[in-house]
Amino acid sequence: MRSRAGGKIFKTMALTAGIALSAIPGRVVWADNLTDAFIGAYNTSGLLEQNRALLRAADEDVAIALSALRPIINWTAQVTQSHNRPTVSGVSTLNQPSTFFTGLTLSQLIYDGGFSVLGKQSAQETVLATRQALLDVEQDVLFRGLNAYLGVLLQEETVQIRLNNVEVSAEELRASQDRFDVGEVTRTDVALSEAQLASSQADLAVARGNLSIAQAEYVNAVGKAPGRTAGQPSLPNLPQSEGEAVGLAQRNHPAIQSAQHQVRALDLFVQQQRANLGPNVGLNADAGFTESYDNDDSTEDASVSLTFTQPIYAGGRLAATVRRAMATRDASRANLLNVQKDITQGVADAYAGYQAASASLRASTERVRASQVAFDGIREEATLGARTTLDVLNAQQDLLDAQLAEVASRTERSRAAYQLLDAQGLLTAERLGLAVQIYDPTLYYNLVKKAPAQVSRQSRDLDRVLKALRRD
Q: By C-alpha distance, which of 413, 438, 357, 360 is closest to 236?
């Protein structure tokens, strides 16, 4: 009787896993799903905040480059104290005339062969590259949230399976003891059942420890403790072939687009350094007021000058700068090729991984079905004396292994599906349709791209934006 009751417990193991979790004391009543994990990871990631700040710094480089094309006006105030010792009729005297000057100076670039314009264009390409790098970081953050959720889910299901296995082992021990009491089995059979129960209890303790570790990672990745998980997530829409997946990745992956913008930025940088070999024309103007404290004289001065400069010899520095820029540009082109090949391989690996995980899940499901049938049959035969206790325990272990493998395969299929999405460059908050405030990189750029003066209204708008973005 007890043997058959234990069989019923094991049969319902998978069905009761989710229900039993909701009854664990102290657990919250709501369920966290994968979308919750994505939202938490996106909203609380310090890595995203760090790279958004780096993007804003790159935005400011555009404003800095633009400022080279604008006039520079400075106000100057200068007090001069002169010391000299003239000799009058052989007598040494001390004369200390003092003057005060105040005025404005203006400098304006007239021509530099396109050096400053090319610098601004290069900075703009760097901004575009940094935006794509931010999207790549966003993918990493969301994928970590996915792994954290699946890790908790896997360990919760593992704990439940092992908890039910402890119950079955305890039931089997009671059945062995009953059969020993009536002389059907020996003390060895009881000892085998006792060892099985002890092993099940040890495995349960390890599983609970692994669950605690997974929950700690969830807190780190998502920003809050997990509630009761809502089960395996639905799979995203995936391409029908590896070729289609590779094509999407080559068009969409932020790592490729970032590398492409880096190449263009360095192409412009090479042109900029070449322009630095040419002539430079600048306009300088100043107007001021000078007053002498010795004789109360005052003068007003104003001057305008046009300066033409052409490098003739700089010790080889200018030519070396051009060659260095060309070498850096060539390195970026090689990096682009490497990134494209790595992305292509990553997509192929992810596609094969998803296909393998799907096949593994189908096989694991069939393994659980067959192991369940075998366990039920062997256990029934043991009650008739046709099987030993060891046979029953071996069948129980086979069923346990099959159930754990099925849970792991189901989790791995979900991970592989989103890994494929990540490999294509599609694992972003916008493409997933997450209910979050999507960070708009153009908002700050549009405020700074014209390099507003510190006293302007646009500069005050920037101050408000930065205050809103800052997290104290």
A: 413
Cα–Cα nearest to 293, from 118, 80, 83? 80
pLDDT of residue 135: 96
Contact 301, 100 (CB under 8 A): no
**Phi, psi (deg, nearest 5) at residue 73:** -120, 130
The number of beta carbons lying within 10 Å of the beta carbon of residue 401 is 13
Strand bridging mode 98-111 / 280-292: antiparallel
Closest C-alpha to 345, from 257, 242, 433 = 242
Q: Report residue 22 as tokens.
A: 């909701």
If we measure between CA atoms, which residue out of 218, 149, 153, 168 comes closest to residue 21?
153
CB atoms within 10 A of CB 222: 25
The whole-angstrom separation of Cα 95 and Cα 400 is 105
Q: Where are the beta strands (DSSP E) in 183-274?
A: 228-229
Question: For residues 256 and 73, is the Cβ–Cβ distance under 8 A?
Answer: no
Cα–Cα distance, 147 to 130 (Å, whole number)? 26
Cα–Cα distance, 228 to 104 (Å, whole number): 70
- The percent helix, strand, coil of the chain (3-state, each to 5) is 65, 10, 20
Beta bridge pairs of residue 304 = 285
- d(CA 34, CA 233) in angstroms, rounded, equals 6
Q: Supply the mean pLDDT for the chain.
A: 86
**C-beta separation of 277 from 318 below 8 A:** yes
Q: Which residues contact 410 (CB under 8 A, 6 or more apart)?
A: 232, 361, 364
Whole-number Å distance between alpha carbons of 348 and 364: 24
The DSSP bridge pattern shows strands 31-32 and 228-229 to be parallel
- Domain residue ranges of the chain, discontinuous segments joined by +: 34-74+104-451
Phi and psi for 77 in degrees, rounded to 5?
-130, 130
- Give me the mean pLDDT over the 230-251 stretch: 92
pLDDT tens-digit readout, 385-434: 888 888 888 999 999 999 999 999 999 999 999 999 999 999 999 999 99
Q: Report the Cα 454 to chain-centroid distance in Å.
A: 33
pTM of the model: 0.83
Q: Which CATH superfamily is domain 34-74+104-451 in?
A: Outer membrane efflux proteins (OEP) (1.20.1600.10)
Instruction: Report the C-alpha gap between 49 and 307 in whole angstroms.
Output: 46
